Amino acid sequence: MNTSVVDGAAKVLTDPTAYADDDRLHAALRHLRERNPVAWVNHPPYRPFWAITKHADIVAIERDNDLFISAPRPVLTPSGPEDLMKAAQDAGTGMRTLVQMDGAHHRKMRAIGADWFRPAAMRDLTAQVNQLARRFVDKMRDIGPECDFVTDIAVGFPLYVILSLLGLPESDFPLMHELTQEMFGRDDTGHQRGHGAADTLEVMEDFLNYFATLTASRREKPTGDIASAIANGRIDGEPLSDMDTASYYVLVAAAGHDTTKDAISGGLRALIENPSELQRLTQNLTLMPTAVEEMIRWSTPVKEFMRTATADTVVRGVDINEGDAVYLAYVSGNRDEEVFDRPFRFDVGRNPNRHLSFGQGVHFCLGAALARMEISSLYRELLPRLVSIELAGKPELAATTFVGGLKHLPIRYSLV
């Protein structure tokens, strides 16, 4: 293997607590971009990988989906849970979502749900999403003058949208939220079910068992929702396996609301901490499209994905061998000084904004249009009704190495 200076700054990428400390995280990532943009990281319990921190390199790797594939290591996971999940997949009992697939199979699986997230479908959903936005802003008004914006508002709104799309009963929404927190929050003491690999697998099994029941129901009696489309989806004329069906549900239900929650809450924090930008947006709602993209860039809910090289190659002068894993540091790419003017300034009018938060290439986020619409809808409802707003305590970020954002955002406000 080509030698590269082992940079201590790169170890923050394997430390979940670093993502709960913006100053520490961004200082390390800035150092890597400047001094060691392709850094070798060997920090157990994670298997070694190359940390890719420059925007251009991340884009190039994601777009070359033959040279760099998702399997067998799509996200950073400690070696113990990684081995258990791989063994379960090999036995046909483990979850395998779109983010773990490549090639023709990925394209065919993605197509099953794609129509539900196209712009035309989003237009049909606008009235329903706007109604839910009013419902949650009304709730915010009613529970004021203080609330925890994350737990009281930002969690519930996208959760209701995506689970309504799936056709799940409202009585099951709390369970879906709890399982999602446990799945994405395995590194955070406030969210994790337990500390061992077996606990992680148990969460997956609970998800899969719930959706196995849903699959059987929708196959027996389709109801015209996205759950029915997934349950009755076919590839090359054959129905999806029960495992692939359940895995599809998990991706839509969990990723479809948790990442949007992070962007919504991270966006509000940025507006509060940048009152001139809050005023600018409130006075000119035509800036909402660029403001939404800036909230997504600023919060970067998905911190990373990983790829594996299928052949020897070179990235920024560094030899990458066949079988090596590369870590795509979206948080770093979204603050790359070569791409973004004053990247540490929150700018609701930023244009262009080539952020990486939805990924690139064939794995571009399936639900990007829905997430944009949800964020826009909530803030179009909230800002004209907002009289005043300020922090009522210290914001708290979740510890993570994959998906995450604010756990708590205490605010004091007045709404009409």
UniProtKB/TrEMBL annotation:
Q: Name one Pfam family in it.
A: p450
| Superkingdom, taxonomy of origin | Bacteria
Name by which UniProt lists this protein: Cytochrome P450
Q: Which cofactor(s) are needed, names only?
A: heme
Gene3D superfamilies (alphabetical): Cytochrome P450
Which parts of the chain are coiled coil? none
**Keywords for this protein:** Heme, Iron, Metal-binding, Monooxygenase, Oxidoreductase
Is Magnesium set as a keyword in this record? no
SUPFAM superfamilies in alphabetical order = Cytochrome P450
Query: One GO molecular-function annotation for this sequence?
Result: cholest-4-en-3-one 26-monooxygenase activity
Question: What InterPro entries does the record point to?
Answer: Cyt_P450, Cyt_P450_B, Cyt_P450_CS, Cyt_P450_sf
Q: Does the keyword Acetylation apply?
A: no
List the PANTHER family hit by this protein, alphabetically.
BIOTIN BIOSYNTHESIS CYTOCHROME P450, P450, PUTATIVE (EUROFUNG)-RELATED
